[in-house]
Amino acid sequence: MASLVLEELDRLRRRAEARLADRELRLVRSRLAEKSGVSVKTISDWFNHKHAPRNLDHLLAVARILARWAELPPPVPRQWSALMAADRAPEAPSQERTPPSPPAVPGVGDLGPDPLPGPGGRAAPGRPVGELADPFSLEVHRAIEVPPAAGPWDNGRSETLPLLPAYVERVHDTRLREVVQQAADGVSGMVVLVGGSSCGKTRACWEAVQELPAGWRLWHPIAPDRPQAVLADLAAVAPRTVVWLNEMQHYLLTPTDSVGERVAAGLRDLLAEPDRAPVLVLGTMWPEYWATLTGTPQPGLADAHPQARVLLSGAVVPVPDTFNGPALKALRVAAGGDPRLARAVAEADQGQITQYLAGAPSLLDRYRAAPTAARALIETAMDARRLGHARALPHALLEAAAPGYLTDGQWDTLGEDWLEQALAYTAAPCHGARGPLTRMRPRPGDPYPAQPHYVLADYLEQEGRTNRRTAGVPPQLWNALVDHAAVGSHVDIARSAGLRGLKRLAVRAYSVAAAHGDTFALLQAAKVLREADRTDEAITWYQRAAEAGDSFALRQTTALLREAGRTDEAIGWYRRAAETGDSEALQQTLGLLREAGRTEDAMGWLLRRAEAGDVNAMRRLAYELQSEGHPQDALPWYRRAAEAGDIDAMRRAAGLLREAGAPDEALAWYRRAAETGDTYALQQTVGLLREAGRTEEAVRWLSARAKTDDAFAFQQMVDLLWTAGRTDDALDALRARARSGHISALLRAVSLLREAGRADEAVEWLTAQVETGDAGLRRPLVDLLLESGRGEEAITWLRGWAGTGDTSARRRAVDLLLEADRTEEAVAWLRERAEAGDVDALWQAASLLQQEGRTDEALTWYARAADAGHTSALLQAGDVLRRTGRVAQALEWYQRAVDAGETDGAQQIVDLLLEADRTEEAVAWLRERAEAGDTDALGQAASLLQQEGRTDEALEWYERAAEAGDVDALWQGAFLSQEEGRTDEALTWYGRAAEAGETSALSQAASLLQGAGRIDEALEWYERAARAGDSEALWQAACLLQEAGRRDQAVAWYRRAAEAGDVDALWQTAFLLREAGRTDEAIDWLQDRAEAGCEFVLWLAGDLLRETGRPAEALARYRRAAETGDTFALRWAAELSQEAGRTDEALEWYERAAEAGDISALRQGAELLQRTGQVDEALAWCRRAGESGTVFALHSAVDLLRRAGRKAAADQLARYGWEPGGDIAQPWEARPPG
Predict the structure, then answer these.
(1) What ranges does the record give for the region Disordered, renumbered to this chain (predicted)?
(2) Which residue has the higher pLDDT, 658 or 583?
(3) Using one digit for the tens of pLDDT, what is the confidence trace for 518-542?
């Protein structure tokens, strides 16, 4: 069975090696041995997996040094101990049972199938990653179904394809893998993949978690709903857990912002807690949700997502919608083994492979070709989702809203079963992928809904959000959303209605949410009304929220009342809140009354509240009286509040009584407060009793408190006894408490005995406890013996413990012997330990002798260790000799180490020879190694000679290394030749590197020639590089020619680069041609590029034509660009028409841009109409902008009406908003529910 300890140690070692390499250092085992005090042989055996660690102290010593070098937190002993225990556990008797896993080791990738319980002993959520076999349960999209054809997967018979197509990595996978590896190495992290629907985000996360080591779990919180699932179990998440948050917006963008913020704050805490590391949070999200959560809040508005913004900062990894470049090439190779990939490569539009695999094109085809009723149903679902409804869409909602998407004629021709037929159409799978709109099936154990619910395909949801942004929403949908939306959706629906100026519907939706107990909805409705200058009604909603206990609503209510000059009403609201026990409201009432100059009323009201039994009022009245210098008047009220259980009043009453010379009554109140756990009151009680000479009573009282597990009371009792001179009583109390398992009591007793000069008794106490097997008290016992001058006993104890395998005891014993100048005795004892089988004693003896300057004796011990099979001792001996200047002997020992298989010895020999200025010998030695088959020695020799400035010899050795197959030697030879100014030789080396497959060497050679001013030769090399597939070479060559003033040639190279897919080169070509006055040529070339598939360049051609005064031709290019889906071109066409004074034509272009989803086109169209005096038409455009959710629309419409002199209509629109049909709403009342 593999050793869990060794695998963890391997990960820690690799992390240390990587960090050392960053500083151009390497991990040398002899140095690790020196730093940790553990033998090189032992460390080598562990690293080579010859045996697992058997000594925890040794293991921790090595892990501590490795962690320091790896820049990680120090190891946690109990966790490494658990790993060792798991290693020692017997193997399970059958394959169906596995041994329990050890806990996670912070800073290291962890192993084992099960983690420790979560905090508080709760079972950690999640399942072992190794048990996850169903990617679809984690919401990975199913792939399309394709009948198998003859190929590698068939072999003459029909076999089932894998669940998922072969995975081809892209750039985002590299960053994702880095974070996953960091988590495996012990560092918590989070990645959120951001990209469009079905672009491969969730699949990338699935592939990444497969790389995690055994022992990791994955937690996918989804029930009862996603945010609540996180909040319910987040505190129980254990180390080595992946928190899987697919569609992360469902967790952070919640109807009540505070819920999402709590989730974000909890995740931040989890990632920051070292005791729960490592954890890995993986999320996915669409770009629009990312923008909402991370965008800067608008000035003057509350910041809705501060926690989420900080959580997501720096965590984004964008996922492209398409495959291109190397990824596309790799995909084509993989397609040879999977017909699904083959079809995607052949048929996917513009590299949208993952979307095709998820059935996206089929979904779009199904939607676009749908019968009228089915299309209406799909668009109903699209709009409902973009307007804020939850993912699960109720049947009643779809049934009520879909008719609004049909004309009268379409509706009249439908059959009675139109809905069933439409749902059947939308439910049919698309090549095995889920249909456009499908019914959700409750899982076993989940509550069964009262009506069916349906879910819209992700891709169509995104299609709706993109292409229906400016589409009008039928009134039937708005009404259905208010009447039939699922509980929990109304707040988001109301928010969408509010953004669109549908104030009545917004308040209605908030009212429904409030009727279901959502206080937040009351506040939001009040905000809508307040912004509409309907203050009285807003106050009513705030009041309802205040009645529900919302303190913010209470403050808003009173603020509005005060703004309206209705101070008495504000005071009344605070009074009513105070009468429910709200202490803050009580203070606000007093403050408002005083601001109004009604101090007597304030005190009178406070007195009446106190007399009515209001405890807060009693305490506050007493405080006011005390502050005004009337303590005798204050005391009765403090007493009454204290009698009602107010702890603060108890303390204040006691304080006044004490000052008034009534200690007994003060004592009674302090005692009552102390019995609630108030430590201040407890101290005051003891102080009063001592002042009264009633120490014994204080002891009895504290003893009684201590028996209730009041640790503070026990501590105070011991202090009291000790300071009163009752030493034995204090010690008896501590002894009794220690017997019940409180080691802290024993240590306190030992400390007190030492202070009293009774160290021998303290030793007896500790000895008795140590003899029961409590190893944790060994060190305090030794320290106490040494302080007492009983060093020999300390050494005796340490020797005994060392005999049981306690290495720290052995080291401490040796240190004490050395301090006593008993070196020979220490050496003799270590020899005994070594002969008894404690091999590490050999190393300690050798190290000891070395420190004493007895090098030859130390070497003898190292030799004995080496003879025993610990060959790394040879390296240690060589290091000793090297430090003492005995070079020849050091070389002999290093050579013996090399011969014994210790590869570190080779580098030590070379380094030592160089230090001794014996370069030739170093080279000769490396030559011998090379001739013996060590090919690395060739490169080492070349590098050595290069450092010595012996260029020709170095090149000869690089040549030999290259002939032996070392491609890096070709690069090194080229670099060295280039540094020495031997350009032609460098070119030869670069050429050979290219022939060996290093095609980037061609561009390197070209760059060298470019620097030497040999432009034409550089171009030849760039040409070779380009033919080898290096498209960057085309750009570099073009830049070279442009800098050299050879513009025509530069244009030719830029053109080639553009034709190879370099977009920057495309712009540069057009720029150079225009700069040279060759605009027509630039336009023609851009036209050619557009016909070759680069249709996005049409707008650039349009710009060039516009600059040269050819608006008609520019307009034609913009039109063609628009036909390819470039919505910006539509707006540019509109601007061009506007410049020409063709308003109607400009409006047509703005109209088309708006239909294509360009919301700003609506604003620009409205402004154009306004400037031309077409007020009603401008209002219609503002209304359409409002339908798209544009915040400015309603305010712009109001301003437009006012400027047109239509004040009444402007005021009505500002107060009541629009109706879904587009009319200004008639006055309506806004009453809160209930």
Answers:
(1) 86-131
(2) 658
(3) 888 988 998 899 889 898 898 888 8
| End-to-end Cα, the chain, rounded Å | 68
CA pair distance 709, 716, nearest whole angstrom: 13
Which DSSP string do the residues of 973-1006 spell out, in sequence order? HHHHHHHTT-HHHHHHHHHHHHHTT-THHHHHHH
CA distances in angstroms from 624 to 244, 590, 636, 940, 1183, listed in the order given: 56, 11, 13, 87, 59
| Confidence band of 106 (pLDDT split at 50, 70, 90) | very low
**What is the C-alpha to C-alpha distance for residues 1231 and 912, in angstroms, rounded to an integer?**
91
- The whole-number average pLDDT for the span 271-279 is 85
CA torsion angle for 1013, 1017, 1022, 1027 (degrees, to 10)?
180
Q: Is the pLDDT of residue 154 over 70?
A: no
Helix axis angle for 711-723 and 695-706, nearest 10°, is 150
Distance CA 608, CA 614 (A): 9
CB 940 within 8 A of CB 910: yes
Task: Calculate Rg over the CA atoms of the chain.
Answer: 41
Distance from C-alpha of 832 to C-alpha of 825, rounded to nearest angstrom: 11
Secondary element (H or E) of residue 438: strand 437-439
Amino acid at 912: L
Strands 241-245, 437-439: pairing kind: unpaired
CA atoms of 669 and 1061, how far apart (whole Å): 86
Phi, psi of 64 (to 5 degrees): -65, -45
456 SS3 class: strand
Report whether 143 contacts 164 (CB < 8 A). yes
Rounded to 5 degrees, what are φ and ψ at 318?
A: -70, 145
Give the tokens for residue 793.
Answer: 């006993």
Phi, psi of 475 (to 5 degrees): -55, -30
Q: Residue type for 1055, please?
A: R
CA–CA separation, 10 and 52 (whole Å): 12
The pLDDT, as a whole number, for residue 299 is: 65
User: Hey, which bits of 1123-1209 come out as E strands?
Assistant: none
Of 386, 364, 385, give the one whose Cα is nearest residue 375. 364
- C-alpha distances (whole Å) from 108 to each of 43, 213, 241, 1045, 1116 are 18, 11, 14, 57, 63
How many residues are recorded in the chain? 1234
Distance (Å, whole) CA 954 – CA 980: 12
Structure tokens at 138: 């984690």
CA angle, 696 then 699 then 701, to 5°: 110
Other beta carbons within 10 Å of 385: 20
Contact 260, 253 (CB under 8 A): yes
pTM of the entire predicted model: 0.53
Confidence class of residue 114 from pLDDT cuts 50, 70 and 90?
very low
> If you average pLDDT over every residue of the chain, what do you get?
80
Helix or strand holding residue 514 (H, E) = helix 503-515
H or E element, residue 733: helix 727-739
Which residue do the tokens 């008795």 mark?
768
Q: Cα–Cα distance between 834 and 803 in angstroms, integer?
A: 11
